[in-house]
Amino acid sequence: MISENSLFSSFNLDTESANSSRRTQKPIDFAIDSNTPFALWKGKRVSRAQLYNHVETLSRRLPEGKYAINLCVDKYLFAVSFLAVLLRHQTNLLPPNQTPAVITELIAEYPATYVISDRVMPDLSVTPFIVDTLRSEIESFHPPAIDSEHLAVCAFTSGSTGTPKPNPRSWGQLKSAALLAIDRFNLTSDPQLLVSTVPPQHMYGLETSFLWPLFSSSYLHNGQPFFPEDIRQLIKSAPQPCMLISTPAHLKACVRSQLDWKNVSSILSATAPMNNGLARQVEVSFKAELFEVFGSTETFSFASREPAREAFWHPYEKTRIVSSQDASYLEVGHFHDVKRLDDRLEIQKNGTFSVRGRSGDLVKVAGKRMSLAALNKYIQQIHGVDDGLYFVPDNQAESGHLGALVVSRLAKADILHQLKQLIDEVFLPRPLHHVREIPRNALGKVSQQDLSCFLKGLSIDQNP
Protein backbone atom coordinates (compact mmCIF):
# COMPACT_ATOMS: atom_id res chain seq x y z
CA MET A 1 0.00 0.00 0.00
CA ILE A 2 1.39 3.40 -1.02
CA SER A 3 0.88 6.15 1.52
CA GLU A 4 -0.92 9.27 0.35
CA ASN A 5 2.11 11.46 0.99
CA SER A 6 4.61 9.04 -0.55
CA LEU A 7 7.39 10.55 -2.63
CA PHE A 8 7.30 7.61 -5.06
CA SER A 9 4.68 5.93 -7.19
CA SER A 10 4.82 2.16 -7.49
CA PHE A 11 4.91 -0.18 -10.46
CA ASN A 12 3.93 -3.84 -10.52
CA LEU A 13 7.03 -5.99 -11.03
CA ASP A 14 5.06 -9.22 -10.56
CA THR A 15 2.76 -8.34 -13.47
CA GLU A 16 5.73 -7.45 -15.65
CA SER A 17 7.48 -10.70 -14.77
CA ALA A 18 4.35 -12.74 -15.50
CA ASN A 19 3.97 -11.10 -18.88
CA SER A 20 7.65 -11.73 -19.59
CA SER A 21 7.39 -15.43 -18.71
CA ARG A 22 4.68 -15.90 -21.33
CA ARG A 23 6.94 -14.54 -24.08
CA THR A 24 9.71 -16.33 -25.91
CA GLN A 25 12.98 -15.93 -24.02
CA LYS A 26 15.32 -13.81 -26.17
CA PRO A 27 18.76 -13.33 -24.64
CA ILE A 28 20.44 -10.10 -25.73
CA ASP A 29 23.36 -10.50 -28.14
CA PHE A 30 26.18 -8.13 -27.16
CA ALA A 31 27.85 -8.64 -30.58
CA ILE A 32 31.15 -7.13 -29.43
CA ASP A 33 34.52 -8.93 -29.45
CA SER A 34 35.28 -10.08 -25.89
CA ASN A 35 38.90 -8.92 -26.22
CA THR A 36 38.01 -5.27 -26.85
CA PRO A 37 38.13 -2.88 -23.87
CA PHE A 38 34.97 -2.00 -21.99
CA ALA A 39 36.43 0.34 -19.38
CA LEU A 40 39.46 2.20 -18.18
CA TRP A 41 39.40 1.26 -14.49
CA LYS A 42 42.08 2.29 -12.01
CA GLY A 43 44.26 3.34 -14.93
CA LYS A 44 44.08 -0.03 -16.72
CA ARG A 45 41.96 -1.26 -19.61
CA VAL A 46 39.38 -3.89 -18.67
CA SER A 47 38.31 -6.17 -21.51
CA ARG A 48 34.74 -7.28 -22.07
CA ALA A 49 35.81 -10.81 -21.14
CA GLN A 50 36.97 -9.49 -17.77
CA LEU A 51 33.70 -7.58 -17.41
CA TYR A 52 31.67 -10.76 -17.99
CA ASN A 53 33.84 -12.61 -15.49
CA HIS A 54 33.34 -9.93 -12.84
CA VAL A 55 29.57 -9.86 -13.50
CA GLU A 56 29.15 -13.62 -13.17
CA THR A 57 31.25 -13.75 -10.00
CA LEU A 58 29.44 -10.85 -8.34
CA SER A 59 25.99 -12.20 -9.26
CA ARG A 60 26.64 -15.25 -7.09
CA ARG A 61 27.35 -13.05 -4.06
CA LEU A 62 24.38 -10.68 -4.26
CA PRO A 63 21.60 -10.86 -1.66
CA GLU A 64 18.18 -12.30 -2.37
CA GLY A 65 15.48 -9.80 -3.29
CA LYS A 66 13.39 -8.30 -6.07
CA TYR A 67 15.08 -4.93 -6.34
CA ALA A 68 18.54 -3.43 -5.93
CA ILE A 69 19.19 0.29 -5.48
CA ASN A 70 22.51 0.83 -7.26
CA LEU A 71 24.36 3.77 -5.68
CA CYS A 72 27.86 3.03 -7.01
CA VAL A 73 29.77 6.19 -7.96
CA ASP A 74 32.57 4.35 -9.76
CA LYS A 75 31.11 3.79 -13.23
CA TYR A 76 32.76 0.43 -13.77
CA LEU A 77 31.52 -0.89 -10.44
CA PHE A 78 28.08 0.48 -11.31
CA ALA A 79 28.13 -1.41 -14.62
CA VAL A 80 29.24 -4.70 -13.06
CA SER A 81 26.62 -4.38 -10.31
CA PHE A 82 23.85 -3.45 -12.76
CA LEU A 83 24.48 -6.53 -14.91
CA ALA A 84 24.96 -8.83 -11.91
CA VAL A 85 21.54 -7.77 -10.62
CA LEU A 86 20.01 -8.76 -13.96
CA LEU A 87 21.70 -12.18 -13.85
CA ARG A 88 19.90 -12.72 -10.53
CA HIS A 89 16.59 -11.90 -12.28
CA GLN A 90 16.24 -8.77 -10.16
CA THR A 91 15.49 -5.16 -11.13
CA ASN A 92 17.70 -2.09 -10.65
CA LEU A 93 16.05 0.91 -8.98
CA LEU A 94 17.65 4.27 -9.81
CA PRO A 95 16.49 6.99 -7.37
CA PRO A 96 16.40 10.69 -8.35
CA ASN A 97 19.13 11.41 -5.78
CA GLN A 98 21.10 9.65 -3.04
CA THR A 99 19.89 11.48 0.05
CA PRO A 100 19.19 9.14 2.99
CA ALA A 101 15.54 10.26 3.19
CA VAL A 102 14.91 9.40 -0.47
CA ILE A 103 16.60 6.00 -0.19
CA THR A 104 14.70 5.17 3.01
CA GLU A 105 11.34 6.00 1.43
CA LEU A 106 12.15 4.08 -1.74
CA ILE A 107 12.99 0.99 0.31
CA ALA A 108 9.73 1.38 2.25
CA GLU A 109 7.67 1.55 -0.94
CA TYR A 110 9.43 -1.37 -2.67
CA PRO A 111 9.68 -4.40 -0.35
CA ALA A 112 12.49 -6.94 -0.80
CA THR A 113 14.93 -4.18 -1.77
CA TYR A 114 18.61 -3.97 -0.89
CA VAL A 115 21.24 -1.31 -1.58
CA ILE A 116 24.49 -1.73 -3.52
CA SER A 117 27.25 0.82 -2.99
CA ASP A 118 30.98 1.18 -3.52
CA ARG A 119 31.44 3.09 -0.27
CA VAL A 120 30.25 2.99 3.33
CA MET A 121 27.12 5.11 3.82
CA PRO A 122 26.59 5.44 7.60
CA ASP A 123 23.57 7.78 7.28
CA LEU A 124 21.44 5.19 5.47
CA SER A 125 18.75 3.32 7.39
CA VAL A 126 20.08 0.02 5.97
CA THR A 127 23.58 -1.39 5.58
CA PRO A 128 24.47 -1.51 1.88
CA PHE A 129 26.05 -4.46 0.11
CA ILE A 130 29.53 -3.07 -0.56
CA VAL A 131 31.21 -3.57 -3.94
CA ASP A 132 34.69 -2.05 -3.63
CA THR A 133 36.80 -4.90 -4.97
CA LEU A 134 36.05 -7.43 -7.70
CA ARG A 135 36.98 -11.08 -7.99
CA SER A 136 37.41 -13.30 -11.04
CA GLU A 137 36.37 -16.80 -10.06
CA ILE A 138 34.63 -18.03 -13.22
CA GLU A 139 36.39 -19.80 -16.08
CA SER A 140 33.78 -18.83 -18.68
CA PHE A 141 34.13 -15.52 -20.50
CA HIS A 142 30.79 -15.57 -22.29
CA PRO A 143 28.45 -12.54 -22.26
CA PRO A 144 25.71 -12.84 -19.62
CA ALA A 145 22.48 -14.28 -21.06
CA ILE A 146 19.84 -11.73 -20.08
CA ASP A 147 16.30 -12.07 -21.42
CA SER A 148 15.36 -9.10 -23.58
CA GLU A 149 11.95 -8.92 -21.87
CA HIS A 150 13.38 -8.86 -18.35
CA LEU A 151 12.45 -5.72 -16.41
CA ALA A 152 15.97 -4.34 -16.09
CA VAL A 153 15.50 -0.96 -14.48
CA CYS A 154 13.05 1.45 -12.98
CA ALA A 155 14.47 4.97 -13.24
CA PHE A 156 12.73 7.78 -11.39
CA THR A 157 12.37 11.28 -12.82
CA SER A 158 14.33 14.03 -11.09
CA GLY A 159 11.28 15.76 -9.60
CA SER A 160 12.16 19.07 -11.28
CA THR A 161 8.52 19.38 -12.38
CA GLY A 162 6.87 17.69 -9.40
CA THR A 163 6.79 14.23 -7.79
CA PRO A 164 9.36 11.68 -9.08
CA LYS A 165 7.68 9.18 -11.42
CA PRO A 166 8.76 5.57 -12.03
CA ASN A 167 9.78 4.50 -15.52
CA PRO A 168 10.21 0.70 -15.76
CA ARG A 169 12.17 -0.47 -18.82
CA SER A 170 13.07 -3.89 -20.19
CA TRP A 171 16.58 -5.00 -21.11
CA GLY A 172 15.59 -5.07 -24.78
CA GLN A 173 14.33 -1.49 -24.63
CA LEU A 174 17.64 -0.34 -23.14
CA LYS A 175 19.61 -1.95 -25.96
CA SER A 176 17.33 -0.71 -28.75
CA ALA A 177 17.45 2.87 -27.49
CA ALA A 178 21.24 2.73 -27.09
CA LEU A 179 21.80 1.44 -30.64
CA LEU A 180 19.95 4.42 -32.14
CA ALA A 181 22.28 6.85 -30.36
CA ILE A 182 25.37 4.75 -31.11
CA ASP A 183 24.48 4.92 -34.79
CA ARG A 184 23.96 8.71 -34.63
CA PHE A 185 27.37 9.31 -33.06
CA ASN A 186 29.22 6.57 -34.96
CA LEU A 187 30.58 4.98 -31.79
CA THR A 188 31.23 1.57 -33.33
CA SER A 189 33.31 2.45 -36.36
CA ASP A 190 35.05 5.28 -34.49
CA PRO A 191 35.73 3.95 -30.95
CA GLN A 192 36.29 6.59 -28.26
CA LEU A 193 37.00 6.79 -24.57
CA LEU A 194 33.88 8.22 -22.90
CA VAL A 195 34.55 10.51 -19.92
CA SER A 196 31.43 11.64 -18.07
CA THR A 197 30.71 14.14 -15.30
CA VAL A 198 27.17 12.73 -15.06
CA PRO A 199 26.15 10.13 -12.44
CA PRO A 200 25.10 6.79 -13.98
CA GLN A 201 21.89 6.74 -11.91
CA HIS A 202 20.41 9.42 -14.19
CA MET A 203 19.02 8.28 -17.55
CA TYR A 204 21.47 10.52 -19.44
CA GLY A 205 24.34 9.02 -17.44
CA LEU A 206 22.95 5.48 -17.73
CA GLU A 207 22.82 5.77 -21.50
CA THR A 208 26.12 7.48 -22.17
CA SER A 209 28.42 5.92 -19.57
CA PHE A 210 26.97 2.41 -19.43
CA LEU A 211 24.72 1.43 -22.35
CA TRP A 212 26.66 3.20 -25.10
CA PRO A 213 30.01 1.56 -24.26
CA LEU A 214 28.29 -1.78 -23.55
CA PHE A 215 26.79 -2.04 -27.04
CA SER A 216 29.49 -0.23 -29.06
CA SER A 217 33.25 -0.35 -29.56
CA SER A 218 33.77 2.69 -27.35
CA TYR A 219 34.73 2.25 -23.72
CA LEU A 220 34.05 4.11 -20.49
CA HIS A 221 36.23 5.86 -17.94
CA ASN A 222 35.23 4.82 -14.44
CA GLY A 223 35.71 8.28 -12.92
CA GLN A 224 33.19 11.06 -12.32
CA PRO A 225 35.24 14.28 -12.16
CA PHE A 226 33.46 17.39 -10.86
CA PHE A 227 35.71 20.48 -10.77
CA PRO A 228 37.19 21.86 -14.02
CA GLU A 229 40.79 21.09 -13.06
CA ASP A 230 39.84 17.52 -12.10
CA ILE A 231 38.16 17.09 -15.49
CA ARG A 232 41.18 18.56 -17.29
CA GLN A 233 43.69 16.34 -15.48
CA LEU A 234 41.65 13.18 -16.10
CA ILE A 235 41.31 13.92 -19.82
CA LYS A 236 44.95 14.98 -20.15
CA SER A 237 46.14 11.67 -18.67
CA ALA A 238 43.81 9.52 -20.82
CA PRO A 239 45.49 7.13 -23.29
CA GLN A 240 43.57 8.61 -26.26
CA PRO A 241 41.36 11.61 -27.11
CA CYS A 242 38.09 11.54 -25.18
CA MET A 243 34.46 12.34 -25.75
CA LEU A 244 33.57 14.53 -22.77
CA ILE A 245 29.98 13.94 -21.64
CA SER A 246 28.68 16.72 -19.42
CA THR A 247 26.04 19.38 -18.76
CA PRO A 248 25.72 23.11 -19.58
CA ALA A 249 26.44 24.00 -15.95
CA HIS A 250 29.68 21.98 -15.91
CA LEU A 251 30.76 23.20 -19.35
CA LYS A 252 30.12 26.83 -18.41
CA ALA A 253 32.35 26.39 -15.35
CA CYS A 254 35.04 24.81 -17.54
CA VAL A 255 34.95 27.75 -19.97
CA ARG A 256 35.14 30.28 -17.14
CA SER A 257 38.15 28.46 -15.65
CA GLN A 258 40.22 29.50 -18.71
CA LEU A 259 42.21 26.28 -18.52
CA ASP A 260 44.16 24.82 -21.41
CA TRP A 261 42.10 21.90 -22.71
CA LYS A 262 43.73 19.11 -24.71
CA ASN A 263 42.98 15.52 -25.70
CA VAL A 264 39.24 16.15 -26.31
CA SER A 265 37.82 14.64 -29.50
CA SER A 266 34.23 15.86 -29.02
CA ILE A 267 31.83 17.08 -26.35
CA LEU A 268 28.29 16.00 -25.52
CA SER A 269 25.80 18.00 -23.47
CA ALA A 270 22.28 17.41 -22.12
CA THR A 271 19.90 17.98 -19.15
CA ALA A 272 19.26 21.66 -20.02
CA PRO A 273 19.21 23.73 -23.24
CA MET A 274 22.61 24.96 -24.43
CA ASN A 275 22.39 28.52 -25.75
CA ASN A 276 24.22 29.42 -28.93
CA GLY A 277 26.65 31.83 -27.26
CA LEU A 278 27.85 29.34 -24.65
CA ALA A 279 28.05 26.60 -27.29
CA ARG A 280 30.48 28.67 -29.37
CA GLN A 281 32.57 29.46 -26.29
CA VAL A 282 32.76 25.76 -25.41
CA GLU A 283 33.99 24.82 -28.89
CA VAL A 284 36.62 27.56 -28.85
CA SER A 285 37.81 26.65 -25.35
CA PHE A 286 38.00 22.89 -25.93
CA LYS A 287 38.97 23.08 -29.63
CA ALA A 288 36.38 20.36 -30.30
CA GLU A 289 32.88 19.99 -31.72
CA LEU A 290 29.97 20.20 -29.30
CA PHE A 291 26.87 18.02 -29.70
CA GLU A 292 23.67 18.05 -27.72
CA VAL A 293 21.19 15.23 -27.12
CA PHE A 294 17.50 15.63 -26.35
CA GLY A 295 15.40 13.20 -24.36
CA SER A 296 14.04 12.42 -20.93
CA THR A 297 13.90 9.74 -18.25
CA GLU A 298 10.62 8.59 -19.81
CA THR A 299 11.90 8.31 -23.39
CA PHE A 300 15.72 7.90 -23.47
CA SER A 301 17.51 10.29 -25.85
CA PHE A 302 15.91 10.52 -29.29
CA ALA A 303 17.38 13.57 -31.06
CA SER A 304 20.57 15.59 -31.36
CA ARG A 305 21.93 18.85 -32.75
CA GLU A 306 25.07 20.98 -32.95
CA PRO A 307 24.05 23.99 -30.83
CA ALA A 308 26.84 26.26 -32.07
CA ARG A 309 25.39 26.00 -35.59
CA GLU A 310 21.85 24.65 -35.33
CA ALA A 311 18.62 25.75 -33.71
CA PHE A 312 16.65 22.66 -34.71
CA TRP A 313 16.88 19.11 -33.38
CA HIS A 314 17.30 16.07 -35.65
CA PRO A 315 15.47 12.89 -34.51
CA TYR A 316 17.48 9.66 -34.56
CA GLU A 317 16.93 7.19 -37.39
CA LYS A 318 13.67 5.20 -37.11
CA THR A 319 12.34 7.91 -34.79
CA ARG A 320 9.39 10.17 -35.58
CA ILE A 321 7.88 13.14 -33.76
CA VAL A 322 4.23 13.94 -34.42
CA SER A 323 1.98 16.69 -33.10
CA SER A 324 -1.67 17.20 -32.44
CA GLN A 325 -3.39 20.34 -31.26
CA ASP A 326 -2.56 19.82 -27.62
CA ALA A 327 0.70 17.83 -27.47
CA SER A 328 3.64 16.21 -29.23
CA TYR A 329 4.29 12.46 -29.38
CA LEU A 330 7.28 10.18 -29.91
CA GLU A 331 7.06 7.15 -32.21
CA VAL A 332 9.98 4.72 -31.97
CA GLY A 333 10.29 0.94 -32.21
CA HIS A 334 11.29 0.10 -28.62
CA PHE A 335 7.99 1.51 -27.32
CA HIS A 336 4.86 -0.42 -28.23
CA ASP A 337 2.76 2.74 -28.18
CA VAL A 338 3.40 6.43 -28.82
CA LYS A 339 4.84 8.42 -25.93
CA ARG A 340 3.34 11.77 -25.08
CA LEU A 341 6.12 14.31 -24.52
CA ASP A 342 6.15 16.85 -21.70
CA ASP A 343 7.86 19.39 -23.95
CA ARG A 344 6.09 21.75 -26.34
CA LEU A 345 7.70 21.18 -29.76
CA GLU A 346 7.40 23.00 -33.04
CA ILE A 347 7.92 20.47 -35.85
CA GLN A 348 9.27 21.48 -39.26
CA LYS A 349 8.28 19.92 -42.60
CA ASN A 350 11.61 18.04 -42.80
CA GLY A 351 11.00 16.36 -39.43
CA THR A 352 13.36 18.51 -37.35
CA PHE A 353 11.93 20.41 -34.39
CA SER A 354 12.51 23.22 -31.93
CA VAL A 355 11.58 23.27 -28.26
CA ARG A 356 9.21 25.91 -26.91
CA GLY A 357 9.36 24.86 -23.25
CA ARG A 358 7.78 22.34 -20.93
CA SER A 359 4.05 21.73 -21.17
CA GLY A 360 3.63 22.56 -17.50
CA ASP A 361 5.92 25.60 -17.22
CA LEU A 362 3.72 28.27 -18.84
CA VAL A 363 2.98 31.12 -16.46
CA LYS A 364 0.46 33.90 -16.87
CA VAL A 365 1.10 37.40 -15.53
CA ALA A 366 -1.20 40.37 -16.23
CA GLY A 367 -2.87 38.41 -19.02
CA LYS A 368 0.43 37.62 -20.77
CA ARG A 369 1.97 34.13 -21.08
CA MET A 370 5.61 33.08 -20.91
CA SER A 371 7.48 29.88 -20.15
CA LEU A 372 9.73 29.63 -17.11
CA ALA A 373 12.36 27.98 -19.33
CA ALA A 374 12.48 31.06 -21.56
CA LEU A 375 12.68 33.41 -18.57
CA ASN A 376 15.53 31.35 -17.12
CA LYS A 377 17.34 31.61 -20.44
CA TYR A 378 17.04 35.39 -20.47
CA ILE A 379 18.22 35.94 -16.90
CA GLN A 380 21.13 33.53 -17.31
CA GLN A 381 22.42 35.25 -20.44
CA ILE A 382 22.90 38.60 -18.69
CA HIS A 383 26.60 39.44 -18.56
CA GLY A 384 27.61 39.38 -14.90
CA VAL A 385 25.00 36.80 -13.82
CA ASP A 386 26.66 33.48 -13.04
CA ASP A 387 23.37 31.63 -12.55
CA GLY A 388 19.70 32.47 -12.40
CA LEU A 389 16.35 30.80 -11.81
CA TYR A 390 12.76 32.02 -11.96
CA PHE A 391 10.14 30.61 -9.58
CA VAL A 392 6.45 31.07 -8.81
CA PRO A 393 6.02 32.52 -5.28
CA ASP A 394 3.37 31.06 -3.01
CA ASN A 395 1.56 34.41 -3.02
CA GLN A 396 1.75 34.84 -6.81
CA ALA A 397 -2.04 34.82 -7.15
CA GLU A 398 -2.25 37.90 -4.88
CA SER A 399 0.97 39.68 -5.83
CA GLY A 400 0.73 39.04 -9.57
CA HIS A 401 4.52 38.69 -9.84
CA LEU A 402 7.16 36.00 -10.35
CA GLY A 403 10.33 35.69 -8.31
CA ALA A 404 13.92 34.87 -9.23
CA LEU A 405 17.21 33.78 -7.66
CA VAL A 406 20.53 35.08 -9.00
CA VAL A 407 24.17 34.32 -8.34
CA SER A 408 25.79 37.62 -9.27
CA ARG A 409 27.79 40.59 -8.04
CA LEU A 410 25.58 42.95 -10.02
CA ALA A 411 23.16 45.15 -8.12
CA LYS A 412 19.48 44.26 -8.34
CA ALA A 413 18.77 47.49 -10.21
CA ASP A 414 21.37 46.62 -12.86
CA ILE A 415 19.92 43.14 -13.36
CA LEU A 416 16.37 44.46 -13.65
CA HIS A 417 17.50 47.14 -16.10
CA GLN A 418 19.10 44.55 -18.37
CA LEU A 419 16.09 42.26 -18.10
CA LYS A 420 13.85 45.11 -19.28
CA GLN A 421 15.72 45.05 -22.59
CA LEU A 422 14.87 41.36 -23.04
CA ILE A 423 11.39 40.69 -21.66
CA ASP A 424 8.06 42.37 -21.03
CA GLU A 425 8.12 44.39 -17.81
CA VAL A 426 5.31 42.30 -16.26
CA PHE A 427 7.75 39.37 -16.06
CA LEU A 428 10.41 41.26 -14.11
CA PRO A 429 11.04 39.27 -10.90
CA ARG A 430 9.62 40.65 -7.67
CA PRO A 431 11.22 39.50 -5.42
CA LEU A 432 14.75 39.10 -6.83
CA HIS A 433 17.08 37.34 -4.39
CA HIS A 434 20.86 37.34 -4.43
CA VAL A 435 22.09 33.91 -3.28
CA ARG A 436 25.48 32.22 -3.03
CA GLU A 437 24.28 29.28 -5.07
CA ILE A 438 21.11 27.82 -6.50
CA PRO A 439 20.25 24.34 -5.12
CA ARG A 440 21.08 22.36 -8.26
CA ASN A 441 21.89 18.66 -8.26
CA ALA A 442 24.80 17.00 -10.08
CA LEU A 443 22.92 17.39 -13.37
CA GLY A 444 22.30 21.10 -12.92
CA LYS A 445 18.59 20.59 -12.23
CA VAL A 446 16.51 21.92 -9.35
CA SER A 447 13.78 19.70 -7.90
CA GLN A 448 10.55 21.27 -6.74
CA GLN A 449 11.11 19.85 -3.27
CA ASP A 450 14.64 21.28 -2.97
CA LEU A 451 13.51 24.66 -4.32
CA SER A 452 10.62 24.82 -1.87
CA CYS A 453 12.90 24.08 1.09
CA PHE A 454 15.46 26.60 -0.17
CA LEU A 455 12.88 29.37 -0.54
CA LYS A 456 11.57 28.77 2.97
CA GLY A 457 15.05 29.44 4.28
CA LEU A 458 15.35 32.80 2.57
CA SER A 459 14.50 36.14 4.12
CA ILE A 460 11.79 37.28 1.70
CA ASP A 461 12.39 40.80 0.41
CA GLN A 462 9.19 42.25 -1.04
CA ASN A 463 10.85 45.45 -2.24
CA PRO A 464 13.66 44.58 -4.66
Question: What integer value in Å does the Rg equal?
Answer: 23 Å
N-C termini distance: 47 Å
Strand-residue fraction?
25-35%
The residue fraction in helices comes out at 25-40%
**Main structural class:** alpha/beta
Number-wise, the strands total: 25
Biggest beta sheet attributes: 9 strands, mixed
Overall shape: globular
How are the strands of the largest sheet arranged? 2-1-10-9-11-12-13-14-15
Please give the count of helices. Answer: 13
Stretches with pLDDT under 50, minimum 5 residues: 1-5, 15-24, 460-464
**Average predicted local confidence, pLDDT:** 86
What are the SSEs and their pairings?
Layout (H helix, E strand, L loop, with lengths): L12 H9 L15 E5 L2 E4 H12 L7 E4 L4 H13 L3 E4 L5 H10 L3 E5 L11 E2 L20 E6 L9 E5 H14 L8 E4 L6 H12 L4 E3 L6 H9 L5 E5 L1 H10 L6 E6 L6 H11 L2 E8 L3 E6 L8 E2 L3 E5 L4 E5 L6 E2 L2 E5 L5 E6 L3 E4 L2 E4 H9 L4 E7 L4 H4 L3 E6 L3 H9 L11 E3 L13 H9 L8
Parallel strand pairs: 1-10, 3-4, 3-5, 4-7, 5-6, 9-10, 9-11, 11-12, 12-13, 24-25
Antiparallel strand pairs: 1-2, 7-8, 13-14, 14-15, 16-17, 17-18, 19-20, 21-22, 23-24
Helix pairs in contact: 2-3, 5-6, 8-9
Structure write-up:
This protein is of the alpha/beta class and 464 residues long. The chain is built from 13 helices and 25 strands. The strands form 6 sheets. Strands 2-1-10-9-11-12-13-14-15 form a 9-stranded mixed beta sheet, sandwiched between helices. A 6-stranded mixed beta sheet has the order 6-5-3-4-7-8, with helices on both faces. A 3-stranded antiparallel beta sheet has the order 16-17-18, with no helix packed on it. The protein is globular. It starts with 12 loop residues before the first helix and ends in an 8-residue tail after the last helix.
